[in-house]
Specification:
- This protein has 464 residues and is mainly α.
- The protein has 14 helices and no strands.
- The longest helix has 36 residues.
- The protein starts with 10 loop residues before the first helix and ends with a helix.
- 41% of the residues are buried.
């Protein structure tokens, strides 16, 4: 029976890119420029950083995830969204809430008039509630899709079920903490906010990225179909990560002191590495010929493909003919940055476990993950997946795909590497440090260039 699914709500993508370019990335670029070129920092630096982070997570990454998942998951579960107006309501609530909250919080420190300050404080809380309602409606739609799926569809979904459970848990925790900003003292909430970001990264962002990867990579890059062990490892990952997050929460419970949060963070990292190796993703990145699926999943084993047009063959290891550009470079580099993030986190935590100190903090770990893994994966998947969502059979500008790969990776290197080099070096080391600081100062603007190329490419594809 034919089902009537809603058309792709492309507004989520345009707003995600717009908020990324003019909001999150722009604020981050400005802060990095001031540090890199030794300029005076903003008076309300903590507010700048907080607003930058929320715009990146809720705006750039969050809106992209909402838009793609509300198109992909109802089709995967064969549970159509009944009304297109529901998508428009979610888009309106999330975008308006994000913009109201971000602008109110950003401008409040620069206001001296008490009445205007009270207005900004109130509007910030209103924006917070509005974006929470939007994300709550989004979660309700996802849960409806999963719960109403037929038995046949549930069996197909079973392998990735733990990762979607993890995603929903992390998403709900993050947005509840954001909502509690209304009730908590600012300094208490900042501690909770930092904790919720880590929850969001581990439980939501990694899980949804991994789930979409193992569902789509068999088609896109001929990765072997997911194995049953991934389901069991997924549940173990949820358990270990939840123990770590609960034990590291900024609240003291004596019962939680039996858990070493640092040890469970290490176990969580090791489980991510295990998932990457067991799924074959890492093998596909570093040993592409060895880990190439011998028979793509849409063909029956033992039946040779009959090539009707010998002049036009799919690229080896891919299902396309090059009409999406070298999108795989973005995907491979994204997973390399995930490995770098895991290595840096494991190294720092092992040092801490043995009572040793290390000169870098959370910054290079977090940006390797968010700017390296998540952003590059979005840049790659967007230019491979979204043309189909828009009913197009190719990307408009294949060269732009490579340019997003080039500028995207340069921006991550420029943002992460300077934070790993000690700034107290002398001689030649001092010259290197100064050069890296210049790169650091430019890193945000280089990121914006990659997003501009993404927008131009998707916009041309949409209109083409």
């Amino acid at each position: 029976m034919k089902q009537n699914h809603q058309e792709f709500q492309v507004g989520f993508i345009w707003w995600a890119i717009g908020i990324g370019i003019f909001g999150g990335f722009m604020l981050g670029a400005h802060i990095a420029m001031q540090i890199g070129f030794n300029l005076s920092l903003p008076r309300a630096l903590d507010v700048w950083i907080q607003t930058h982070g929320h715009l990146q997570l809720a705006g750039w990454v969050g809106l992209f995830i909402i838009g793609v998942s509300l198109h992909f998951i109802p089709r995967m579960t064969s549970v159509p969204i009944e009304k297109r107006s529901t998508l428009k309501i979610i888009l309106f609530l999330t975008v308006s809430g994000i913009l109201i909250r971000a602008n109110s919080e950003f401008w409040a420190p620069y206001v001296e008039n008490e009445k205007i300050l009270k207005f900004f404080t109130l509007s910030s809380k209103i924006g917070n509630v509005i974006e929470f309602l939007g994300t709550l409606l989004y979660l309700a739609l996802l849960l409806k899709s999963f719960l109403k799926a037929t038995e046949f569809k549930r069996k197909g979904f079973n392998l990735v079920k733990p990762y979607f459970i993890s995603f929903i848990i992390g998403w709900l925790i993050y947005w509840l903490v954001q909502l509690f900003e209304i009730f908590l003292d600012r300094y208490d909430w900042l501690a909770w906010n930092k904790w919720s970001i880590d929850v969001f990264m581990r439980l939501s962002l990694f899980s949804i990225s991994f789930a979409f990867s193992i569902l789509n990579f068999p088609l896109y890059i001929h990765l072997a179909p997911p194995r049953k062990i991934l389901k069991h490892l997924g549940y173990v990952y949820i358990l270990i990560t939840l123990i770590y997050e609960i034990s590291s929460a900024p609240i003291y419970y004596e019962a939680l002191q039996i858990f070493d949060s640092n040890l469970f963070a290490i176990l969580s990292d090791v489980l991510i590495l295990s998932l990457l190796f067991v799924s074959g993703i890492i093998g596909r990145v570093f040993l592409p010929d060895l880990y190439l699926a011998k028979s793509p999943f849409w063909r029956r084993d033992g039946i040779n493909e009959v090539i009707t047009n010998i002049e036009k063959k799919p690229r080896k290891g891919y299902s396309d003919y090059g009409e999406f550009g070298k999108f795989e470079l973005l995907i491979y580099s994204a997973y390399i940055w995930l490995l770098i993030s895991l290595f840096l986190d494991l190294l720092a935590r092992c040092f801490t476990l043995f009572g040793l100190s290390i000169h870098y903090g959370d910054d290079p770990i977090r940006h390797s993950f968010l700017l390296g893994f998540i952003t590059l994966l979005i840049l790659g998947m967007a230019q491979r997946m979204l043309p189909g969502f828009m009913h197009k059979n190719k990307i408009a500008h294949k060269k732009f795909v490579f340019l997003t790969f080039l500028f995207g990776n340069i921006s991550v290197i420029s943002r992460v590497l300077p934070t790993l080099i000690p700034h107290y070096l002398s001689g030649f080391g001092y010259i290197v440090t100064k050069f890296l600081l210049i790169l650091f100062g430019l890193s945000g603007f280089i990121s914006i260039i990659s997003l501009i190329f993404l927008f131009l490419n998707l916009r041309s594809t949409f209109k083409g």
